[in-house]
Amino acid sequence: MQLAWIEKITAKNWRVSALIATGLLVGCVSQGPKLVQSTDPYSKKSQYAFGPIKAEDCPTRSRGNGFVDVQFVGTDGLHTMSVSYLSDTWLFLSTSTPMDILIDGKSSQLVPINSPSRDVIHGRQVRENLYYPVTQDFVRKLADAKTVQFRILGAKGNLEQCLSSERIKSIEAVVPLLP
After folding, report:
1. CATH topology for 32-177?
2. For residues 35 and 46, what is the distance between their CA atoms, to the nearest angstrom?
3. Residue 81 C-beta-side C-alpha neighbours within 13 Å
4. CA-CA distance, 91 to 67, in Å (whole number)?
5. Which residues are registered as beta bridge partners of 42?
6. Which of 2, 7, 53, 113 is most deeply packed, by most CB within 10 A?
7. Contact 162, 148 (CB under 8 A)
């Protein structure tokens, strides 16, 4: 059995055994996006974050090289959809070109704001983030869609991902938060 080493180490300490078992079980459970809301104590303005929504490779495209999350963030009247790319290779995602998005096969574009956020996470792991302003109408279209596919161009490659129907439905939680 592959976990035999855990049994030997933890045989004398049931608390450690319980902690490891809980960690293994929690790690195996699929975690969906979470909504976090708060009010800034100084300005009294509401803010929220919803995500991460895991994107996946599109059925008609080749396998991507990395992980992609979508998140919705709102604060001080600005509501954004962020796309985060995590991999061991840079794509240098562009803010000079819009994101192409297909919602039930209908093409739209979102123009990014600011410059991309790029970080080295650990060793060779890198993360790139782009932020796109969104409206309630746009988020409603996303939440009501059957299929969502998006593409972002980069200097060293493109990012093309899809959202599963289950993940699309989770976006419904964000709609009432936008004016």
Report:
1. Immunoglobulin-like (2.60.40)
2. 13
3. 22
4. 12
5. none
6. 53
7. yes
Give the tens place of pLDDT for each residue, 14-72: 333 333 333 333 344 457 899 999 998 998 888 999 999 999 998 876 666 789 999 99
- Name the residue ranges covered by the structural domains of the chain: 1-30, 32-177
Total residue length of the chain = 179
Q: Give 126-162 pLDDT, tens digit per residue.
A: 999 999 999 999 999 999 999 999 999 999 988 899 9
Dihedrals phi, psi of 6, to nearest 5 degrees: -65, -40
DSSP state string for 102-137: EETTEEEEE--EEEEEEEEEETTEEEEEEEEE--HH
Query: Is 0.90 topped by the overall pTM?
Result: no
Token pair 């096969």 is found at 105
Please, are residues 58 and 162 in contact by the beta-carbon 8 Å criterion?
Answer: yes
The sign of the CA dihedral 40, 78, 138, 149 is negative
Question: Tokens at residue 58, please?
Answer: 């599109």
Q: Backbone phi, then psi, for 51, in 5-degree steps? A: 155, -170
